[in-house]
Design a protein that fits this description.
Blueprint lengths: L3 H36 L4 H23 L7 H4 L4 H12 L14 H11 L3 H11 L2 H26 L2 H30 L4
Helix pairs in contact: 1-7, 1-8, 2-5, 2-6, 2-7, 4-8
Amino acid sequence: MPGVTDLLAAAAAAALVFAATNVDDIVVLTVLFVAARGTGRPRPWHIVAGQYLGIGALVTASVVAAAGLLVVPDPWTGLLGLLPIALGVRALLARSDDDAPPAVVGSLLGVAGVTIANGADNIAVYVPVFRSLDPAAGLVWLLVFATLVAAWCAAAALLGSHPRVVALVGRAGHRLVPAIFIAIGATILATSGLLP
């Protein structure tokens, strides 16, 4: 049975790994919260629930893979990069003349899909970690991840309501928001090893 020190060390490690693998989510979540303020889509609860659903799917896939029940060649996870690219291109093509930033993602499942696509590389980090954890430490990791998803959403909502961020997205949102999604997708494809 692990001691308190071991569990605190597991919590610290989990927080560090979560922060390192999800720092890019702050940008995506902030853009989504700004879009929600301007267009009403996605709704804030869609963003939060979608983030939980997406991170939950990534962690579940990692735990299943760590148990040896799922083997997906790493390069193929790069195909998930096509989702944010498609969303960004669609937003560029649907551009309107009003001042509101485009609603690149409009639903809970859309947010979850972007979270999964953006976090596909997280699986490569999470699998060996979950393979090495005992059940108590694994539970600590899951609790820390759940807590930090809430913290990430709160930070992004705060950033998304900051006047300077809102003004920036309002001025350049029609190009900036789709460009962020296209860049995320291109990065996923480029770093996955799928493309030569």
